[in-house]
User: Fold this.
Amino acid sequence: MKVSVFTCTPQFENDLMDAVRIFIGSAETLSQEEGGDITLHHTEETQGNTRICHVTITGQYAGSATREEEILADPLLDKRMHKRQLKNCAYEVMKKATAFHPPWGSLTGIRPTRLLYMDLQKGHTLEKARENLMRSFDTQSEKADLLCDVVRTQQTLPDQKDGEIDLYIGIPFCVSRCAYCSFLSGEVGNGKMLSPYAEALNKEIHATIDMVARYNLKPRAFYMGGGTPTSLSAPLLEEVLSAAQPLLRQCREITVEAGRPDTIDEDKLRVIFNAGTHRISVNPQTMHDETLERIGRKHTCKQTEEAYALARKVGFKDINMDLIAGLPGENPDMFRQTLGWLSALSPESMTVHTLCIKRSSLLHLWEHVLPGGDMVADMVRMGREEARKKGMQPYYLYRQKYMAGNLENVGYALPGCESLYNIGMMEETANVLAMGAGAISKRVNTESGLIRRAPNVSNIEQYIERVDEMILRKQQLLAENLFTERN
Ligand code: SF4
Assistant:
């Protein structure tokens, strides 16, 4: 559906459209141009210190709304509130016209927990912060409660301390590409890129070990992700993990995302285990072979079961499993079956993702078999219920654009099995030194909220060629000030 947008603040056009897309996920913008299936007009006026915002929509979702807000003295804060005002106005029109109350209301940000933390910092109680969230964004109580539970769990866990650092190694290869994938991942193909990649990566790992020592940093959590780290052969995996040992030895938490069950074998699991890994991910996504085939994951449910049993046999005591709610062709009964199967295995943590299709070509391909928003909401609810039954608590939550049903991704874990790395990443509260193609190193100033990033190039060939430059970028990031101030 195309939406003609006429706004007096073109700089906030995307915010208006964000509100529309809560209701019509595939809505496209026609900027200041007639011919859309619906037309949105946004105008404003000021009276004294009050900004009055009007939104009128004509066409299939007709209606209008007006909101008045005080103009704030702080320009940055006012800009934020201004955007919220016009977005809420467009949201109100769409809500009335569709008679649909979205689970998260008008909230579209990636990290909704941040809103609760901002209120807690102001001295509000969590209950008050919850109320504010529901009032400001029309968020449903079910989601506000979920968010409060996430914050409560996080409050029991240690933050990254001054001088601590998390570490990430990315292996951007997969044996085949899942149809919905939006990650940086190249197919292994004939495997000829793997050795040069590992060689470049080892160089970056050695340089990072030097940086950690030079700046007297204390490694806290390590995460190896991708792609699929186990798409490397056992000897190459061993080479990389051995190179990283001086870092790993100092970490209190080590996770390797094995990911795709079809890449897991006993040799690789032993290499990962012997490197000191505490936590491993084996990701089924669904336990229906026909769905796996439909989404291009070239493994079977049986392979997932075998990989899981093998991981237990090798000695892993902390296994995470990822599921996706809303996969094409699935319904709540199928998701319930997947959950029942997962429950019987009893992993220590699970992540319930909601299908997110960033490539519109795929959306078109699957449109007729994608479960509707209500069905996906049921699946997500079942996931939460199953986690509760198993004694798991939600401990991180994030949202993305283009998620089915406009829902969320939630990490659940048994107490003591939460991943600190995941929290630091999702909340953007942790300093990270990241190695590998597409990996992003980060320094966070927790007081100002300012984040500086040093991204590595995403292209694998470029990364191999320019690894020295990636090392330099990290050195510059560390040299800037935050860490050196300690010495
Ligand atoms: S396993 Fe993950 S990273 Fe690899 S193709 Fe599938 S979704 Fe993408």
